[in-house]
Every structure is written in structure tokens, then in C-alpha cells.
From TrEMBL, chain A:
This protein's name: Transport permease protein
Molecular function as annotated in GO: ABC-type transporter activity
One Pfam family per UniProt: ABC2_membrane
Subcellular location, record wording: Cell membrane; Membrane
Lineage, uppermost ranks: Bacteria, Bacillati, Bacillota, Bacilli, Bacillales
From TrEMBL, chain B:
Native organism taxonomy: Bacteria, Bacillati, Bacillota, Bacilli, Bacillales
Organism field: Lentibacillus populi
Pfam family membership, one: ABC_tran
Protein name: Daunorubicin resistance protein DrrA family ABC transporter ATP-binding protein
Gene3D superfamilies referenced in this protein's UniProt entry, alphabetically: P-loop containing nucleotide triphosphate hydrolases
InterPro entries reported in the protein's UniProt record: AAA+_ATPase (IPR003593), ABC_transporter-like_ATP-bd (IPR003439), ABC_transporter-like_CS (IPR017871), DrrA (IPR005894), DrrA1/2-like_C (IPR025302), P-loop_NTPase (IPR027417)
Length: 252, 323
């Protein structure tokens, strides 16, 4: 199919571009490892009696994976501003290639940029005793890949709309913190007061994180997983449709 | 003659209900196959906007536009297969090699690997960058990058090529060199529509041109036709002191020269008796102790055409409203 062929062309272009930025590749891989090495030991003593490493990882790794999905996707806005300012977007838009394919090329690259460090995190964690449930993990990675797609499309579109790195950065960082805090990524929302829990339920990402945690435990058939997939898939589809329209109008 | 582009009553307005900006104001024109056609005008005249409409990048507010026989609104995808476009920004990916950039274009237009390879070879020789193919675009000079970008725009052998300010930022030598290349493309049968705010460029390159100002067409024809509209020669005078302006005007009154265009301390006069008049002016200024910074007698240029039509120098207009 034409769209698949074209998506592949854009995907390869984006992948090459990323692979050439060695510094970013290294920093992308380092972040999750630093979290595991430098942050997870802090969690050991927050309960009485203290947890062992495997227990800490069980609580913490699903959150790291969501964080990875988020950060892999949101970087797109920056490169999009660059592509726009150097005229690349206009140059691509005057070709007959599908606009959806242009969008998806970058989005799928971000999925790869999520899956690689995610796999490394899982492998290393399992060495420290983190229990891997194969089917659960695969479904979890699928769900998080969809979340990456959503953030990637969203961030890229903001880049095209703002046309300015400063603007994109301001919007993304100001949304990133409340979104991640209210999703219970680092610590469970159930630790918090009622009002915080209510707020969390308005955050679509919360459902993704809940489903992600259940899947990590190896629990596949349950309400959280079902709701998580529905919420995330619906929002991602809406985002992709909107982004394609933004792409279709973008000029420098 | 076959029409490559036909535009009728085209309008484009930006902005919201509070503030409307008319970028293109009800213009109509035709470009014929195989000619170099230019839009000449200051920044903000609507040149880029018109090109973006014709290349399907922008919607239309009013009127119709056909490119290579297809409507740009209803048949956008077909138009895209038939045109090439090199924007002011260029669009070559700096973080990819020249070869990769051209290969990407080949793929996006659905050319086979063999055909793409052949054309890259041919175009890199035609446009003099064969030895640069494996270089990263970010390492190229402005002129080299521009030639690569033009190759990118014509790899799929479009019927119509759009060039937006193709020589902006190039030094005079590179500019003259690129003009030769553009003419070569025309001689091979391509229709070329370019925008420029350089008079020399419009003059040297165009078979026909339109002078655009504030979204409106103010003149249309061949460069020679347009210059003929201004009879005789042009005398340009620049004063050293603004207090002498009144005295100069008295002289013009005395000599009954009506056709004077005044811009600050500059006066431009169109006359059929150039030499005689220059002699008068010298005599008069000596007598009244008026100091001249500059005086020249020349054949009218396109700048004079613009000046005569709008009362403004085209050169000055370029500084404001840069996008």
C-alpha cells in the first residue's frame, strides 16, 4: 500500500537522523538507568519493614516505563520546529506523499526510541530480581507504544503551531509535570488524599499507568487494562487525526 | 501557446475578523509553457503567498488557479506530481548527505532506484555539484546548497518549477552562475516561475514579468516593454543637504519639468533631453551653492518603472516586512 511505503520512507529518514545524534542516543539510554541506579534505592526504606530490591523494582519499573514513553514522544516538537525552519516541511508538503505518512514516520521512530531503552530497563531490572511476565510485558509495551505515539503526534503538532522552540518547551514542560504527577508514575496515587485521586481520574494518562501496572504484574484480564486501552487508543486516534490536519497546513 | 499556469481573480486574506490582511488582491495572469516568468516586488508584496497557493501549500480565499492543467484546490495531488518548488528556506536536510537528500526526493515522487540514480548523476553534473554528493548538506556553502535544492526540486522532471527568491543570500558571482543554470533549464523546455526583489535578476532572467506591490499587479510585460513605458533617460540627483530641496524644486519649476519624483533628498527626472538638462542642473547648483552628493544619467531600469508607478524605490521596500 502507498501509505505504508511512504510511512516507511519517512520512518527510515527519521531513524537515520536520530541515530546520527550520538549524544542524544546515549542520554536517552542513560536516563532510565540513572533512575534505577540512583532513585530506586531511596524507595527501599519508605515502608516498614524495608523492601528488598525486587519489591522496589516491582513498584517502580512500570512507572519508569511510562516516563520513558512520555519523554520519547515529547522530544518531537523540538525537531519539528527545526524541520519547519529549514524548509523541510514545505519541501515535503509539495510532494504528492501522504501527510499521514509524514506524521507517522516520525511517530513510529519515537516508538522505536521508546522500545529500545524500555527493553534495556526490563533486562537489567530482571537481573536484579524483577519478575517478568511475558504476555503482560508485551501488552504493556504495546500500550506504552501507543502512549508514545500520542505524545509524539501531540508534541510535533505543537512544534508546527508554535514554530518556536521556546513556545513548545514552555507548553510541554508545564503540562508534563502535572500530567505525570497526577498519573501516579513515581508513587501510587492511592497514597494521596481524596481530592488528588479525583484530579487523577480526569487525567487520561492515569488510566494508562493503572493498566500498565496491572499488566506488569501479569494480570491481563481485568477492568483496569480494558479501560486503559480504550482511553488511550481513543485519545491517540483523535490526536493523530488532528495532527494530520495540522501537518496539512504547516508552513514556515 | 500552451498555458502552464492560469490564475483568475485570485485573492488571499489572512487574519481574523478584527484584523484582515490582504496578501493577494484579486490578481489574474497567465504563464506560458517554456518561459521564465517573474514576480518582482518588495517584501510583503504577496509574491511568496501567491507561490504558496500555486504549489498547494496555502488555501485560496477567492478566485481560481490552475497549474499544468489541474486546479490547485480540487486537484491538489495531481498538481503536486507536476510541479517542483524551491522555497526561500531551501528545504535540503542539513543533517543528511546531498545524495540522501536527492534519493529521498526520488522516493517520494515514486521514481525507481535506477531512474533516481541516473538523474542524480545527470543533475549533479548539470548543476556542478557532482563532487559534493557524499558531503553533508550543512557543510555546503550557500551557493552549493542552493544548487542542490534546485536539483531536489527538478529531480522528478516537473512541468513547472517554482523558485522563491532563488538567489537571496548569494554573492554576485554565485548569482550570475545560478542565472545561467536557470536559463539552461528553460532552454530544456521547463516552465519557470520565480519571485525576486532584485531588479537585475528580473531583468536578466525573465521572458515576462509582473511587478507586484501590496498584493496588486501594477505592471506586466517583457522587461524591454516595461522599460519602454518610461520614455527617454533617467536623471538621479542626490542632495548633500536637505535645506537645498526647496531651491532644487524652484529650478524644476523654472525649467517646467513636471515629471519629478521626490524621495527625501533624492530626485529622479525622466526626460528625453538628458545631457542638456544635466548641464543646466550643474550650472544652477553652482550658482546657488547647492552641494550634490550624486548625479547620474542612465537608461531607465526596472527600478525606475517601479518608482514611476508607485513613487517609491523598490530597493527601500525590501527592508520592511521581511518574513
Amino acid at each position: 500500500m502507498q501509505v505504508v511505503r511512504e510511512t516507511n520512507i519517512f520512518f527510515v529518514r527519521k531513524l537515520k537522523e536520530s541515530a546520527r545524534q550520538i549524544a542524544w542516543v546515549i542520554s536517552g539510554l542513560m536516563t532510565p538507568l540513572l533512575y534505577i541506579l540512583l532513585f530506586s534505592p531511596l524507595l527501599k526504606n519508605i515502608t516498614h519493614p524495608a523492601m528488598n530490591t525486587a519489591q522496589v523494582l516491582e513498584m517502580f519499573v512500570p512507572g519508569i516505563l511510562v516516563l520513558l514513553a512520555f519523554s520519547s514522544g515529547t522530544g518531537t516538537g523540538w525537531t519539528m520546529v527545526f524541520d519547519l525552519k529549514s524548509g523541510i516541511i514545505e519541501r515535503l508538503r509539495v510532494t504528492p506523499a501522504s501527510r499521514f505518512a509524514m506524521l507517522m514516520g516520525g511517530v513510529l521512530k519515537d516508538v522505536v526510541a521508546f522500545l529500545i531503552p524500555a527493553t534495556i530497563v526490563l533486562v537489567i531490572s530482571s537481573l536484579f530480581g524483577y519478575e517478568v511476565h511475558l504476555v503482560g510485558i508485551l501488552l504493556q509495551l504495546l500500550l506504552l507504544s501507543i502512549i508514545t505515539m500520542m505524545f509524539s503526534a501531540w508534541s510535533g503538532s505543537l512544534g508546527l503551531i508554535f514554530q518556536d522552540v521556546g513556545g513548545v518547551a514552555a507548553v510541554i514542560t508545564s503540562l508534563q509535570l502535572p500530567l505525570t504527577l497526577l498519573a501516579g508514575i513515581l508513587l501510587p496515587i492511592s497514597f494521596g488524599p481524596k481530592w488528588l485521586q479525583v484530579l487523577a481520574h480526569i487525567n487520561p494518562l492515569y488510566y494508562g499507568v493503572e493498566a500498565s501496572k496491572k499488566l506488569a504484574e501479569g494480570s491481563i484480564v481485568n477492568q483496569s487494562v480494558f479501560v486503559g486501552f480504550i482511553v488511550i487508543v481513543v485519545i491517540t486516534i483523535i490526536t493523530l487525526i488532528w495532527s494530520t490536519r495540522v501537518y496539512n497546513k504547516a508552513i514556515a | 501557446m500552451v498555458k502552464a499556469i492560469s490564475v483568475e481573480n485570485l485573492s488571499m486574506t489572512y487574519g481574523n475578523k478584527k484584523e484582515k490582511i490582504i496578501a493577494v488582491d484579486n490578481i489574474s495572469f497567465t504563464v506560458y509553457q517554456g518561459e521564465i516568468f517573474s514576480f518582482l516586488g518588495p517584501s510583503g508584496a504577496g509574491k511568496t503567498t501567491t507561490q504558496r497557493i500555486l504549489t498547494t501549500l496555502l488555501p485560496i480565499s477567492g478566485g481560481t488557479a490552475d497549474v499544468a492543467g489541474c486546479n490547485v484546490l480540487t486537484d491538489a495531488k495531481k498538481v503536486r506530481t507536476k510541479i517542483g518548488y524551491v522555497s526561500q528556506l531551501g528545504g535540503a536536510d542539513p543533517n543528511a548527505t546531498v545524495h540522501e537528500n536527492l534519493e529521498l526526493s526520488g522516493k517520494l515522487y515514486g521514481l525507481s532506484k535506477d531512474v533516481t540514480a541516473q538523474r542524480i548523476d545527470k543533475l549533479s553534473k548539470l548543476l556542478d555539484f557532482h563532487e559534493l554528493l557524499s558531503r553533508f548538506v550543512r557543510t555546503l556553502s550557500g551557493g552549493q546548497k542552493r544548487r542542490v535544492e534546485i536539483a531536489q526540486g527538478i529531480l522528478h522532471e516537473p512541468k513547472v518549477l517554482f523558485l522563491d527568491e532563488p538567489t537571496t543570500g548569494l554573492d554576485p558571482q554565485n548569482r550570475a552562475n545560478l542565472w545561467q543554470h536557470i536559463k539552461k533549464l528553460r532552454d530544456n523546455g521547463m516552465t519557470i516561475f520565480l519571485t525576486t526583489h532584485y531588479l537585475e535578476e528580473a531583468d536578466a532572467l525573465s521572458d515576462r514579468l509582473i511587478i507586484l506591490d501590496h498584493g496588486k499587479i501594477i505592471a506586466e510585460g517583457t522587461p524591454t516593454e516595461l522599460k519602454k513605458k518610461i520614455s527617454g533617460e533617467a536623471i538621479s540627483i542626490e542632495l548633500k543637504n536637505s535645506r537645498d530641496a526647496e531651491k532644487m524644486k524652484q529650478l524644476f519649476n523654472q525649467l517646467a519639468i513636471g515629471n519629478v519624483i521626490e524621495t527625501g533628498m533624492n530626485f529622479t527626472i525622466y526626460t528625453s533631453k538628458g545631457e542638456e538638462l544635466v548641464a543646466h542642473i550643474f550650472e544652477y547648483t553652482k550658482e546657488h551653492h547647492i552641494e550634490l552628493a550624486n548625479i547620474s544619467l542612465s537608461m531607465p531600469s526596472l527600478n525606475d518603472v517601479f518608482l514611476a508607478l508607485t513613487g517609491q524605490e523598490l530597493r527601500d521596500g525590501g527592508k520592511e516586512g521581511e518574513q
